[in-house]
Design goal:
Heat Shock Protein 90, 5 strands, five-stranded antiparallel β-sheet, single chain, globular
Length: 139
């Protein structure tokens, strides 16, 4: 499997989620993923990009989100960076996911952690937030 990389930048507009997911889908073509695995990765990506646009940047259409898609050493790596700089505690949201009883939303971090092999955040308050996701590709 050949290493490859793609960088895109999208405006902070939730309408960009669908287009970004299509870019991910196209990027993953040719990788050893079945439809279910690819669908799950797209779901995790959808959560990450939606959170970056909606929560990280408050859908400020003057801001952008950077997305890096990387295949390296049999891993699919997704890096999503927003420039809202809103710090939060992902462990808190993941812990309450199984206990909370609210309607829509609030389960994204849990979903991403369940689907992907690695999930990490890097915060620079009032500057940026980076979400790092990785998935080991099947042999």
């Amino acid at each position: 499997m050949q290493n490859k990389q793609l960088h895109i930048q999208v405006p902070c507009d939730l309408k960009q989620v669908r287009e970004s997911r299509k870019v991910l889908h196209d990027f993953c073509q040719g990788l050893p993923l079945n439809d279910e695995e690819l669908g799950n990765i797209e779901l995790a990506f959808n959560e990450g990009i939606s959170n970056a646009i909606d929560h990280g940047s408050s859908s400020n259409k003057k801001m952008f989100v950077d997305i890096d898609l990387i295949v390296k050493n049999r891993y699919l790596i997704i890096v999503i960076k927003d420039y809202g700089g809103k710090e939060f505690n992902p462990d808190y949201y993941e812990r309450i996911t199984l206990k909370k009883d609210w309607g829509r939303g609030g389960r994204g971090i849990y979903l991403m952690r369940t689907i992907m092999d690695e999930l990490a955040y890097i915060f620079s308050p009032n500057n940026f937030t980076v979400l790092y996701l990785s998935k080991k590709l099947p042999s």
